[in-house]
Every structure is written in C-alpha cells, then in structure tokens.
Amino acid sequence: MTSRSYQRGLRMALPFLLPSLAGLVLFSAIPIVVAIFLGFTGWNGLSKINLTSGFFPMVVDQWVGLRNYVSILSDKEFWRVLGNTGYYIVLYVPSILVASTVVAMILNSGRKMIGLYRILYYIPVLTSWVAGALIWKWVLSPDLGAMNNLLALIGIHGPAWLQDKNWAMPGIVLASIWKDAGFFGLILLGGLQGIDPTYSEAASIDGANRIQKLFRITIPLLTPVLFFILVITLINSFQLFPQVMIMTTDAGPNGATQSLVERIYKYAFKYFKMGYASSFAWLLFVIIFFFTSIQMKMQDKWVNYDA
Amino acid sequence: MRKKSAFLPSLAYHVFASFLAAVIMVPFFWMIITSLKDKGAMLTVPVQWIPRNPSLLSFDKVIHLFRFDSALLNSGIVSVLATVVTILSAAMGAYAFSKIEFRGREGLFRIYLATMMIPFQVVLIPLFLVMKELGLINSFVGLIVPSVFNAFAIFMLRQQMMTIPNDFIDAAVLDGAGQYRVFRMIILPLTAPTLITLGVITFMGTWNDYLWPLVMLSDRRKMTLPLVLNVLNGQYTSDYNVLMAGALISMAPILLLYLVAQKYFKTGLQVGGIKG
Q1: What is A70-302's CATH number, 3.10.560.10, 1.10.3720.10, 3.30.70.1450, 3.40.640.10?
Q2: Same domain as B18, residue B149
Q3: Model pTM?
Q4: What are A86-137's pLDDT values in tens digits?
Q5: Residue B231: which domain range?
Q6: B235 touches A at CB < 8 Å
Q7: Cys-Cys crosslink for A303: which of A73, A78, A223, B9, Cβ 3.0 to 4.6 Å?
Q8: Are A100 and A77 in contact (CB under 8 A)?
Q9: Residue A279 confidence (pLDDT) above 50
Q10: pLDDT at residue A193, as a whole number
C-alpha cells in the first residue's frame, strides 16, 4: 500500500458518505431500533402514533414484555407454519441444486446454440414473481390447466394441486424451481468456468473416466459455489412469500401453504397486530441467523477452498 | 474458454438441452395461448392447444379497463429513478470507503455490512411508520427513497474500486483535480462495467418488486405492474385469458432490456469474495 496524502479526513469523506449515511440512519438503524421496541408491545396499529412524539409513551403504555414471543411460540400455528416451510425446504433445496447443476453443465459444454439455451433458461428469472405465480396458478388448474392436461396425454390423472392440501406445497415448489433454476445455474456456471482445465486433463492422463472426473474433480472444486447457493436458497426459503400470496388464496386449503412472511404481512397489514407481527419478524431473523450460522460452522466439513 | 468437454454425445446433448428448454417454456406457451382465447374457448375440454378463434380482446380489456399503460409508466419511472438513486449513492459511498482515509472507516463499514443480516420483513413495519412520519405513503418518492441505502451495492462497488491504483488519483490531484472531478473522471469510468451490471440487477429487482410496493401503494393510479396484476388477480380470479394478457404485457419490457443488456451477463455470474 502506498501512502496517500491527498485523500484524508472525514471532511473529505463526508459529502460522499452523506446520502448512504442518511439512508442508513433513517431507513435501517431507526427502523431496527423501533422494531425491537415494537416486538415488546401489544400495539394494534390502529391507535395513531408519531415516531417523533408519541412513540415512547405508546411503548410504555402498551408494554407486554415477552408475552408476544411466548404466545407465538406456544401457538400451534407457528409450528405448523414452520413445518410448511420445512416441507418446502426438503422438496425445494435438493431439487434446485440438481436443476441448477444440470443447467450449468449444459451451458458449459462449449457447443453451438448455447446462447439460445441460456436466454431460454433465464426467462423465468426475468419474470416477476407476481406474473410467474399467476401463470403457474393457471398451469396447475385441476381440470383446465396445462399440467394435468399434459399428464393426461401420458395417462396420468393429476392431483388438484393448489386446491389439495397435500399437493399445494409441491405445486409451489415446482413453480419455484422453474423460476430459480436459471439464476443459480448461471452462478454455478461462473464457478465451472473458474475451474482450471489442467486438473481435468491430468486426471484424463491418469485414466479417469467422466463420472470419476465429475465426482472427484468438478464437484469438489465447485463446493464453494454450492455452499454459497445452499446458504442463499435456505435464506430465501424462510422468506417464502409472493408465490404463496398469489398462487394460493388465503394460503391454501387448511393453511397448507402458510409461510412465515405471509403470516407477518397478514398480522401487520390485515389484522393490524403490529407488535405481534414485529415479534414474528424477529423470530424469522433468529431462525435465519441460526441456520446460516450452522451452515457456516459445517462448511469446514465439506467445502473445499484449496483450488 | 471454449473447451469441448464431450460430456454427452452431440445429438443426445441437443435433445436433452432442448427438451429442458421446452419444459421451461411450457408455462409461457400456455400464457400466450390463453391470452389469445375468449372465455368460452378457455373453458373447453379437451384443451385447445392452438386457439381456434384467436382474438386480442383480453389485451384490449387489460389495457383499457386496468390502465396497464399507466402502470407500465409507473413501473418505468419507479425503476429508473430507484436505479439511478441506488447507483449514485452506492458509488459515492463506495468511493469514500475505498479511496478516502478517515477515522472509524472500517468500523462504519462493518456497521453497513451488518445491516445486511436483518431480513427486510423485520424493518418493514417501522419503515412504513417512518414513511408515514415523512408523509410519503402512497408516493413514488416514498417507494424509491430507501434505495439511497443499499449495503450490498456499496460492498460490491467498494471491492471493485479497491482495485483502482491510487497513483491514478494522486496524479490527478497533483494536476489540480478536486474530489468531485476525481470521482467523475476516474472512479466512475473505471468501474463502469460493475455499475452497469449493478444497474441492470437493481432495475429488474425494482421492476419485479412486490412486498414493499404492496405495503406502500394503495392508490390504483400509482400502482406498479406487479400490484396491478395483483389487483387483477383479485377481481378476475377466473378470467385467466385477461390475467395471462396482463402477465404477458408486464414481462415484455424486462425481456427486451435483458436482450439488450445481455452482453454484460456473458460470462456467467461470478460470485466474488465468497471464500471463507
């Protein structure tokens, strides 16, 4: 590092920092502090408050301590919603890893028409979730939808998908894989292209076949990227929201597709239980933090960084 | 980097790759077919895979009844402004964090990064309250202004700007250039590719955003495309020809943008700085 005599001092930095710093305070720091307090109140959102004047009196007035957290954690609903999310994760995460690996390997083959495939695989990523979810709601329509009519062509009688409590979540998972495979495929492609071809060449000389090379070279060298994808998909899964809102009215039969964020949104902006919803959101944070930390700890066991 | 890894024989490869493409395209074909049907044709069994009497009536309905043209304009305005605000503010912040030394720099940067850990849903309610306090509910300004703080963008740009040699800046300063000139004439041009990538990501993210506009906008005339689609979904629950026409219209501009900006995504998305 060379020394820099001309670029010093807060006075020089401040004009450049000002926009983001103001944003940090107003749209991140203050909301985080407010959210912490809200989580300890029973505020119903209907009584008018101003952050600048009436907020702290309201907090004192409506203080309930840990009661929100206790009642969420002792409510069956929370555990059912967490179970729904778990079901989504069990179906979605392994599938998206496989699907995006397939996409990446197709795009890494160096053959003709890759440009076309790349665009086609990426179109769902460009589609908004609202549009994508609307399309899938119609694709999965029991009698008139494309899915069951296509299945009928090969003699399979498809389920009622989003209207069947056992099939609603798998339907949402299908749409999510369709939407995300191109995105994670392209990230994996970046990883594949970063692998030094000499590894593979050396292995060939030593007589390794394609399958051996795939499992002994390509996949181990991809583990950092796979790890990244695993962390991101898990975080995204806990934040499952637009699919549920658009595809399943009132979150499916018997609440089969209710998700954590769907609950937070409805508690806050439909039932106006702002305090309760804030506690719910903090629990979401704790869950995400917990699982991300576990993944960080576990990475030594399988992620290979010495490429 | 064009190596031929003959993982599959050529024919099998193309059969497989185009089959996958076809599977991915089915929902879009389904959307287009449906948008061209009238309500009767939509409800016939067996399904008409090719509409017998194609019509553009649902598009007409969507555009005129639902003012999709104004929603299109709203989405355009919001996305362009949010992108400009994000890029400008993030580039300025990143410049300060990478090229200006000041006390507490690393600590402040760590605070910036730490905010990325908090999910958006946690700050959603308080952010709504802040906007209410500022009188910005139901306004584009309120929708856009949180973009001024984007820790991810600042992080990405800082990493990029760190690679610019300080000698460039020192030379410019010796020649009498001020801070703003250095920023405009050296920093911005040298980070242009990253700025563009970030711009495209931000534009698409804002264009497709759902939760924040859903909370902020209730005035129909101000709604962005995803929200109008959402309203359409509530009112025309079973008129899928109308819904599909709406979905198609909402997708078109972003597809065009992607085709134009494609070359910036040529090499696959490299995940930088993820080594532990």
Answers
A1: 1.10.3720.10
A2: no
A3: 0.89
A4: 999 999 999 999 999 999 989 998 788 888 999 999 999 999 999 999 999 9
A5: 64-265
A6: no
A7: A223
A8: no
A9: yes
A10: 87
Q: Which ipTM was obtained for this model?
A: 0.89
Burial-class residue B106 by CB neighbours within 10 Å (0-12, 13-18, 19+).
exposed
| Residue (of A267, A258, A245) closest to A86 by Cα position | A258
**How does pLDDT run across B127-147, given as a tens digit for each residue?**
999 999 899 999 999 999 999
Q: Which residue out of B8, B36, B110, B129 would a mutagenesis test of the A interface target, given it has the greatest number of A Cβ atoms within 10 Å?
A: B129
Rounded to 10 deg, the angle between the B68-99 and A10-24 helix axes is: 140
Name the residue type at position B1: M
Strand partners, A3: none
A241 SS3 class: coil
Domain locations along chain A: 17-65, 70-302
Distance CA(B118)–CA(A123), nearest Å, equals: 30
Each residue of B180-214: pLDDT tens digit?
Answer: 999 999 999 999 988 988 998 899 899 999 999 99
DSSP one-letter code for A164: S
Does A265 contact B at CB distance below 8 Å?
yes
Interface check for B139 against chain A (CB to CB < 8 A): the answer is no
Q: Fill in the amino acid letter for A131.
A: A
Cα A116 from Cα B10, distance rounded (Å): 16
Of B96, B99, B101, the CB nearest to A17: B96
Both B157 and B72 in one domain: the answer is yes
Interface of B with A in 24-83 (CB under 8 A): 24-28, 30-31, 34, 42-43, 45-47
pLDDT in tens, A205-214: 998 888 888 8
Interchain proximity B244–A282, CB inside 8 Å: no
Distance CA A176, CA A181 (A): 8
pLDDT value for B7: 55
Distances (CA, A) of A279 to A35, A45, A68: 8, 14, 6
Residues 6+ positions from B68 with CB-CB distance below 8 Å: B62, B225, B228, B246, B249, B250
Question: What are residue A76's DSSP bridge partners?
Answer: none
* Residue B235 and residue B128 in one domain: yes
Write out chain A residues lying below 8 Å of B48, CB-based: none
What is the structure's pLDDT at A188?
92
User: With b meaning 16 or more CB within 10 Å and e meaning fewer, what string describes A213-233?
Assistant: beeebbebbbbbbbbbbbbbb
Name beta bridge partners: A8.
B101
Bridge partners (DSSP) listed for residue A41: A63
Query: Could you give the CA distance from residue B61 to residue B236 in angstroms, rounded to a whole number?
Result: 11
* In the block, residue with structure tokens 């090969």: A154
Subunit contact B166:A2, Cβ cutoff 8 A: yes
Interface residue B195 vs chain A (CB under 8 A): no
Q: Crossing angle for the helix pair B240-261 and B225-235, nearest 10 degrees? A: 160
Query: Which residues does chain B have with pLDDT short of 50?
Result: 1-3, 267-276
